[in-house]
Amino acid sequence: MDTASKSWFVIINPTSGNGSGKKNWPKIKSLLEKHEFIFEHVLTTYSKHSIKLVHQAIKQNFKNIISVGGDGTLHNIVNGIMTQNNVPTSKINVGVIPIGTGNDWVKTHKIPKNIDSAIQLIKNKKIAHQDIGKIEFLNQTKTPVYFNNLAGIGFDGYVVSKVNKHKYIGALAYLYGTLISLFFFKNFESKVSSNSETISGKTLMVLVGVCKYSGGGMQLTDSPNPFDGYFDISIAKNLSKLDVIKNVSKLFNGKISNHKKIQTFKSKHIKVEINQDEFPFIQADGELIGTGNIKITLIPKAFSLYC
């Protein structure tokens, strides 16, 4: 059967979830066949391989993609969709079979972690269109980065840098990364511009949310809605290490945004400039994407998903 007659393109990250992608692929493949999916599949072999695979799949007229992996795999698939010019991005439909460490994005859309249930949900073909964020680096010749869940600058990015080294311990890596980061991260000087307002000063982190959860289940923004056409933004000002330790539980129950040192608001765009020589890490969907001054804009309903 040639690729043109196949309906689905399946991208598997074999390293997701400490190798769960590779371990579970035979079972997933069998279930897809059982549910009568007609598909072509590829296992990724290097970082960001999914971006190239998406470009190739779209050129071969695939309009339905299944991500078998975690938040990072989906992040790269989204970037593949957003950086191609052959088809309107909202015409490419993505289903997710979550096999990751954090699996944060699926929590917002209530996509089940059970493999058979996730496949059944995709088969039901109920489609929604959510917003996407676009990060542009100022004064750098870097390609824009797109995100479907949450982007963070500062402490959040530093935690991701630690988590990536300890994903072998599973979801506990996020708690470990947070605790380790408390000892080494230093608040930074920033200037945040949005909605004709400028907020300057010492900063722990700046969070720009599309969806609700990040960092293994943390809820760091106030009221994110992936369908409302606005980012949900939290600026954590000069919180001390003690402030963070005392409020660790609130990172996970959503109450952290009520802290007096955290400012929250809605916006379609934001610019973050760093007013010091040392630049903090930037993460998007749990992936480190670099450092520098950035502009972030919202693209409404650009991503089509099976939910």
UniProtKB/TrEMBL annotation:
SUPFAM superfamilies: NAD kinase/diacylglycerol kinase-like (SSF111331). One of its GO terms (biological process) is phospholipid biosynthetic process. This is Diacylglycerol kinase family lipid kinase. Its cofactor is Mg(2+). InterPro entries: ATP-NAD_kinase_N (IPR017438), Diacylglycerol/lipid_kinase (IPR005218), Diacylglycerol_kinase_cat_dom (IPR001206), Lipid_Phosphate_FormReg (IPR050187), NAD/diacylglycerol_kinase_sf (IPR016064), YegS/DAGK_C (IPR045540). Pfam families: DAGK_cat (PF00781), YegS_C (PF19279). One of its GO terms (molecular function) is metal ion binding. Residues 3-139 form the DAGKc domain. Keywords: ATP-binding, Kinase, Lipid biosynthesis, Lipid metabolism, Magnesium, Metal-binding, Nucleotide-binding, Phospholipid biosynthesis, Phospholipid metabolism, Transferase. GO terms for cellular component: plasma membrane.
